[in-house]
Amino acid sequence: MFQIKTATRYITVLIGLWFGTSVMATCQSSGLQLQVLGSGGPGASAGRGSSAYVLWLNGRSRILLDAGGGSKTLFHQSGASLGDTDLIAISHFHPDHSSGLPAILWPSGAEFTLAGPDGNEVFPSVERFTQLLFEQGGVFAILGDRLEYETVEVSTDGSTITEVWADSELNVTGIGVPHANVPTVGYRVDYGDLSIAFTSDQNGSNTQFIEFIRDVDFLVIHMIGSENATGLMADLHAKPSVWGQMATEAGAGHVVVSHFSRSNAVALDENLAILGANYDGPITVSEDLMCVDVR
Ligand SMILES: [Zn+2]
After folding, report:
1. How far apart are the first and last CA of the chain?
2. What would the pLDDT profile of 15-73 be if each residue is shown by its tens digit?
3. Helix (H, G, I), strand (E, B) or coil at 201
4. Which residues have their alpha-adjacent CB atom under 5 A from ion ligand 1?
5. How many whole angstroms from 105 Cα to the centroid of ligand 1?
6. How close is the Cα of 40 to the center of ligand 1, in Å?
């Protein structure tokens, strides 16, 4: 039974990827669109960029979520513009989520709100991150005069919901997610009655995150773990079954799977089958520059 269901799910995943009405190669110029810039993970990613996403609203690249390695190239390939980007939201300060930011900002500079985690004794807060990079004495202080930004520190205590940024159309909130000792933020974006949430890297053990993402239309998960992971890997990354249970419990309308490394490419089929055995909704497997029509 499990095998039949697994096989059926896998076929559905493939059909969803190839023929799904909500997945396109290019973004529509109206409504809310999610563009995956980098679908790769921390390891060698077979040509994929590391974590980065653009949210387009009515043809404008309003929000950049994460800026991992390779995201400068993908940002420009997508046609996104810093002039249209009001919010840059970083999930955590692992290089595969944040090292591309100075490259994206160079040389034009930009004006934006920068959100990120509140830090701990090991990792900097988002404010400290900007001091170390852009302010006097910082590594890229050359960029300092070209940037106009304010930082928003998102609590990573796991229960506080931080109001990150909003305008008359979009509302962005954040909550801490468990990723070993790394202060990490999961973000949710609401647009009218539409919503999309980003889990970032996490082990899936924060039950308050389930409430935070309740009834989202789209849930972007980072499939880097495996079902038999133990130790640090299990503390860092959720098992495929946990992702499926999370999406089911939260009532997510659609799951977008991202963050693949070559090291787990062999396990991807197996991971997708386990995900599908724990979640009955549509599943889309990310590719760089892929667009999802949230509407
Ligand atoms: Zn990562």
Report:
1. 36
2. 344 444 456 657 889 999 999 999 999 887 778 999 999 999 999 999 999 999 999 99
3. coil
4. 42, 96, 201
5. 21
6. 8
2-17+32-287 is classed in which CATH architecture?
Answer: 4-Layer Sandwich (3.60)
How wide is the angle at C-alpha 249 spanned by C-alphas 246 and 250, nearest 5°?
Answer: 80
| Number of Cβ atoms within 10 Å of the Cβ of 182 | 21
Contact of 289 with 77, CB cutoff 8 Å: yes
Distance from residue 66's CA to the centre of ligand 1 (Å): 10
Centroid of ligand 1 to alpha carbon of 274 (angstroms): 21
CB contact set of 4 (below 8 Å; sequence gap of 6+): none
- The pTM score is 0.92
Whole-angstrom CA distances from 93 to 32, 126, 136, 227, 265 are: 27, 9, 21, 25, 24
- Rounded to whole angstroms, the Cα distance separating 181 from 212 reads 21
Sheet of 87-89, strand order: 23-24, 291-293, 32-38, 52-57, 60-65, 87-89, 110-117, 147-154
Pair type for strands 110-117 and 87-89: parallel
CA 3 to centroid of ligand 1, rounded, Å: 30
Q: How many Å lie between the centroid of ligand 1 and the Cα of residue 96?
A: 5
Rounded Cα gap, residues 159 and 75, in angstroms: 32
The angle, 0 to 180 degrees and rounded to 10, between the axes of the packed helices 265-278 and 2-19 is 110
pLDDT digits (tens, 9 = 90+) for 131-177: 999 999 999 999 999 999 999 999 999 999 999 999 999 999 999 99
* 53 CB-near residues (< 8 Å, 6+ apart): 34, 35, 36, 37, 64, 65, 66, 198, 220
